[in-house]
Amino acid sequence: MSAKPLRSLLYVPGDKPRAIEKARTLGADAVILDLEDAVAPEHKGAARANVQAALAESWPCPVLVRVNGLGTEWEHADREMALLAGVDGLVLPKVEEGRSVTELHLRVPLWAMIETPRGVLNAPAIAAAPGVAGLLVGANDLARALRTQPQPERLPLLHALSAVVLAARAAGKLPIDAVYNDVRDPAGFVRECEQGRTLGFAGKTVIHPDQVAAANSAFGVSDEQAQAARDLLAAWDAARQEGKSVATWRGALVEQMHVDEAHEQLALWEAGRR
């Protein structure tokens, strides 16, 4: 996978060649060519051919393929096509056990979708499975399985969302937040991005071109934040040069954890500018 951050991962239906072509130009940190939920059964074969052709071209970002799930009639053909075409990673839907990922023995990064209550409960084992690069929340299926009602702040899902973040971070993997369905509500999308960032997600899956820039902004580092990180590091370095064991910046004590965070912020800022 690329060293760039994964602030935005844009789903593109595999049966829409024009949308696939346009996706190259939208500035998403990664594109997910979808062979699963976005494609009707009668279009699966054509979608697979479209995705194969797209993978033969060069892309400005990593390209993942969401294959059809285990036990479906399309799973083997999807995986074989993607692997032979040189995909950057596979998105596996409705993963519920770490063992089901481990037994695949695939040699590309795997992104496990957590979309069921069982998947949430087993998220630590899934995140720790060999080859797993991160966990993607599938909130629509999860909400349906939990019988929750829509709520702007996602209160019924907060426990599950945090559980996915905890599992991914504990395993050193990336947690990616779920899609926001209402593409006519940009303000709501921004609020949900901010909530996801606050919960600890590294990025967000998106379903519309207009959502890409907002996700990149919400999960990225602004120029002002980068400068603040530089100022903190300068204060730390000055204190160390004076032989002090602690530093202060903006009236607060600076410890090693703050220094590490500042370095991470600058690395994310620099990566986002490439």
UniProtKB/TrEMBL annotation:
<feature type="binding site">
    <location>
        <position position="141"/>
    </location>
    <ligand>
        <name>Mg(2+)</name>
    </ligand>
</feature>
<keyword id="KW-0460">Magnesium</keyword>
<dbReference type="GO" id="GO:0016829">
    <property type="term" value="F:lyase activity"/>
</dbReference>
<feature type="binding site">
    <location>
        <position position="66"/>
    </location>
    <ligand>
        <name>substrate</name>
    </ligand>
</feature>
<feature type="domain" description="HpcH/HpaI aldolase/citrate lyase">
    <location>
        <begin position="7"/>
        <end position="209"/>
    </location>
</feature>
<dbReference type="InterPro" id="IPR011206">
    <property type="entry name" value="Citrate_lyase_beta/mcl1/mcl2"/>
</dbReference>
<feature type="binding site">
    <location>
        <position position="115"/>
    </location>
    <ligand>
        <name>substrate</name>
    </ligand>
</feature>
<feature type="binding site">
    <location>
        <position position="115"/>
    </location>
    <ligand>
        <name>Mg(2+)</name>
    </ligand>
</feature>
<dbReference type="GO" id="GO:0006107">
    <property type="term" value="P:oxaloacetate metabolic process"/>
</dbReference>
<dbReference type="Pfam" id="PF03328">
    <property type="entry name" value="HpcH_HpaI"/>
</dbReference>
<protein>
    <submittedName>
        <fullName>Citrate lyase, beta subunit</fullName>
    </submittedName>
</protein>
<dbReference type="InterPro" id="IPR015813">
    <property type="entry name" value="Pyrv/PenolPyrv_kinase-like_dom"/>
</dbReference>
<dbReference type="InterPro" id="IPR005000">
    <property type="entry name" value="Aldolase/citrate-lyase_domain"/>
</dbReference>
<keyword id="KW-0479">Metal-binding</keyword>
<dbReference type="InterPro" id="IPR040442">
    <property type="entry name" value="Pyrv_kinase-like_dom_sf"/>
</dbReference>
<dbReference type="GO" id="GO:0000287">
    <property type="term" value="F:magnesium ion binding"/>
</dbReference>
<keyword id="KW-0456">Lyase</keyword>
